[in-house]
Design brief:
Largest sheet: 4 strands, parallel
Strand order of the largest sheet: 1-2-3-4
Structural class: alpha/beta
Shape: globular
């Protein structure tokens, strides 16, 4: 994977104006605006929709995966192999949101 780091919501939105990543790996706890704010903003500011995997220790997985912009949730502390597996799965979908959001926490069989 090629990673383009963003250290804040503002930084991520600035990057998304010029680049279209294959996937966004999002933490909820970020300086300034948080990841939940980003999820609200991305739905109106980023077209076409980019798949989003939330990777956070601060979020309730049930609440996060109900957001229409979230394709998967992987809690921090999860084995890196599981995170990569979820990312690969989401990237294999024909379109973002094509299947119900998955959670490594609620679907341990992965």
């Amino acid at each position: 994977f090629t990673v383009i780091p963003a250290l804040s919501v503002e930084d991520a939105l600035r990057i998304l104006k010029n680049r279209r990543p294959s996937l966004i790996l999002l933490d909820i706890g970020m300086p300034g605006m948080n990841g939940m704010t980003f999820l609200q903003m991305v739905s109106t500011e980023v077209k076409p929709r980019v798949p989003i995997v939330v990777h956070s220790a601060l979020a309730n997985p049930d609440t996060v995966i109900q957001n229409e912009n979230v394709d998967a949730f992987v809690p921090k502390g999860t084995d890196i192999a599981m995170l990569v597996k979820v990312i690969r799965e989401v990237l294999s979908w024909p379109t973002p949101g094509a299947t119900p959001a998955v959670s490594a926490e609620t679907d341990p069989a992965g």
